[in-house]
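Re: the request from the purification team.
They wanted to know what the chain is likely to look like in 3D before they choose a buffer screen. I agreed to run a prediction and write the result into the notebook, where they can find it.
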Amino acid sequence: MPAEPARELAGISPAGLREQAAELRERLLAATARVLDSGWYVLGREVEGFEREFAAWTGAAHAVGVASGSDALELALRACGVAAGDEVIVPANALPTAFGVAASGARVRFADVRAEDLQIDPADVAGLIGPRTRAVVAVHLYGHPADLGALGAVLDRSSVAVIEDCAQAHGASAGGTPVGLTGDAAAWSFYPTKNLGAYGDGGAVTTADPELAARVRRLRAYGEQERYLSVEYGVNSRLDELQAAFLREKLTHLDGWIAARRRVAAIYDELLADCGVVRPPLLAGVEHARHLYPVQVPDRDRVFARLRDQGLPVAIHYPRGAHQQPCFSDRWERPLPVTEQLARSLLSLPMHSYLADDDARRIAAAVAAAVRRA
């Protein structure tokens, strides 16, 4: 007799973190011992090694490790000259990004996104650019690259900086160019659930500009040009040695993990066709990082509740636009219809590199059944 759906689905790991730690356990313990034996715990050889190896993996000339993805965005903006009184344009469907921008001292301005790729809409950005605009943050949300070509055309011959938010896009590319190589700088997150995640918080800034990289290095450590000589106002945002050691071990597995995510996405793509679900867009020439698998469904909240009742770890990214958050209420200038429609309809399915093919098929079947009942 077949098991109840709830029993079948309840054991599916939300993020695969336990499975990943089990696979890497011996290497992680060895990395821990290496750090403990060194007696050096902040900004040492492990951080230097990770920065060098991550820069090589991304194709960037420079990588600077910091304490979190939000800090990476804040410090990248500040290194580009963003300060209080400046304006920075961000997509309204990327809530964490708005906080990183606000931390830089700039005023956040929210742009709508395009239905065709769920990314920042360059045409909407064009209407927001003003004399105080200092930067635009292009968020490669869910793992799909933003349209940097169209955004560049809008910003042509302006001094507006472009910062790529690559927090969800490790391994993504467009037209053969990896994310993180087109803008003035890129901010990366190593939050545990990212494609490359630490066992705690962590982040990095990558750039081709050696002066910008040097400034991020100063800003992450009290603005110090040398020990106890602070030449500008900085912060304490240092990637610690233990997290860097873990990330070095995990970086060697990253390409395989991304390939596994793409295999899961292919199963979802096949089984969710023609069942009332709008699958994640994938534009021509794009390699998707498959950090998340967000689908659009009718009566999303009812479908969400039915799937959660079955023990299926679905999630919502995000239930409201950043411009609709109470803390940003003074910056809600106008309706942003695409962002607001997506907030009502998007549902994220389980997505990680340890999700078994059979589990992916069961999830797709459960989603299709829940949508038919909606």
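For the purification team: The chain has two domains: 21-250, 253-373.
Please add any questions underneath this entry.
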